[in-house]
Amino acid sequence: MSIKFRLTAMQFLQFFVWGAWLISLGGYMGGTLHFEGGQIGAIFATMGIASLIMPGLTGIVADKWVNAERLYGVLHLIGAAALIYASTATSYDQMYRAMLLNMLVYMPTLSLANTVSYNALERYKLDLVKDFPPIRVWGTVGFICAMWAVDLTGFKADATQLKVSATAACLLGLYAFSLPACIPARSEKKSLLSAFGLDALVLFKRKKMAIFFLFSMLLGAALQITNTYGDLFLSSFASIPEFADSFGVKHSVILLSISQMSETLFILAIPFFLKHFGIKRVMLISMFAWVFRFALFGWGDPGNGLWMLILSMIVYGMAFDFFNVSGSLFTEMEADSSIRASAQGLFFMMTNGLGAIIGGYASGAVVDAFSVYAEGGGLVSRDWTPIWLIFAAYALVIGLLFGAVFRYKHSPEQLQKNR
Hints:
By secondary structure, this protein is mainly alpha-helical. Helices cover 75% and strands 2% of the residues.
């Protein structure tokens, strides 16, 4: 069995584990468990908490003491146990504890999966630039397959989605021990500050970079909002007779999967856009794409407004990837070679760490502000249109401010030099 196939299987399962619950869990918690919007937001904010602390810690362990593929396997096995516990949770406290543990062990596996892949490809004398992207794209395929699986089986509405994810995590955890050894480089002396990306804080002394990281955090707050509430929103149309039997309600997760399909297309367009428009304009395109993403949710419905929902899914690829990829590239170009790895860690912490935490709690507060709950618990009514339009207004303000205060002159020659 070729190493490319083995790594492809790893990447497929890596994102299958995530895709089995990330998009549909909000709908399950709000619909079946009757959690409030703020509670759902807080549970999704555990991704941010985990992103702040765990990648750095596990990076130190893998660099100094434990083979990366073994640590990777152990983390997935712990994650499988956490997901099984989450599948039995009936209260907010139980679900929060279970998903916090799951996120603490899952988020660092995203970078460990790349580490294991890079190590194996180098060991087999393969070209990283040429051979890794076709392997990594199967991660997105795995994510989409998981979404379709839980939707078509009806698992999106109950705890079985978590059991599906746990099964895949257990399989991946065991499989990881068969991958090529990724031995720790014990001679490497990485400081604690470097591991957490904090030695790159020197970049904040430069006004341009300080502004960039601030807006990265602010936009990072919007990245997971539709993943958190998208399925809950679409499922809410089931209470309206004219929409109850529509495709968008019955197969809401499949409809949402168009977003991930869109990602695979827009990520291929990034080099063209960067070359012709520059990083600032590409990031502005991303920010205004988020405006359309949210606004189209606010105006669309699974009936005559289905085209708006589909367009919102297509726009998502531009909104998500143009920001993440171009932002990472800008960080790479602007940071000194001695702190580039730390700078990437800092960008990740600002977006997926602090941004995700702020977004989780703030979006939950917005959802609750337009929700009416029964005194003993349970949702009475929720007005989704102003919720999505508030999120759209937030993205619009960020885009306008970023365009006004961020100064960056596009240079195709400099971009080509740094590629």
